[in-house]
Amino acid sequence: MENQEQETRELQLIKLLQIFHYIWGALSCFVGLIGVAYIFLGSAVFSSMNKHSEAVAFPSIFAVIWYGMNVLLVVLCEVCGVLSLLAAQKYGKQKSYRLCFTAAVINCLAFPVGTALGVFALWVLIRPSIKTHFRGQMKRA
């Protein structure tokens, strides 16, 4: 009886991880799209500065830094978001333990929400009983 209760709790934890990864993945992808808006905003600002002050052109190094940082933000957010969405899908099927573990580690880099999710996911994933779920040795509900 106790073994069945433990298995039920573990399946609930996996389901929670799936839900949280779907939410975090969607949020990360949305934040990445905000970065695209900043790229267009910077483009408009830098072009208007150079049009109105022809005597002193705005240093292009600032524009390069602005674009570089925003492109990096967009790429990192979108990669983190897509990886979290893929991990959420794998949590539902209880497959690809390595992908889920990798997503948890990468989410730890996104402070503070991603770190909380990553630590929680690692705490769940390091359990030997959870590993047996991913190996398919236990029945799935």
Please state the average pLDDT score. 86
- Could you give the count of β-strands? 0
Number of domains: 1
What spatial form do the alpha-carbon principal axes imply?
rod-shaped
Poorly predicted runs of 5 or more residues: none
- Please tell me how large the radius of gyration is: 21 Å
Helix/strand order, N-terminal first = HHHHH
Q: Main β-sheet, in a few words?
A: none
- Residues in helix, %: over 70%
- Helix/strand/pairing class, anyone? mainly alpha
In DSSP terms, counting alpha (H) and pi (I) runs of 4 or more, how many helices? 5
What's the end-to-end separation, in Å? 16 Å
Approximately how much beta-strand content do the residues carry?
A: under 5%
Describe the structure.
With 141 residues, the protein is mostly helical. It has one domain (16-135). The chain has helices spanning 2-52, 60-93, 97-107, 113-125, 128-135. The model has no long low-confidence stretch (mean pLDDT 86).
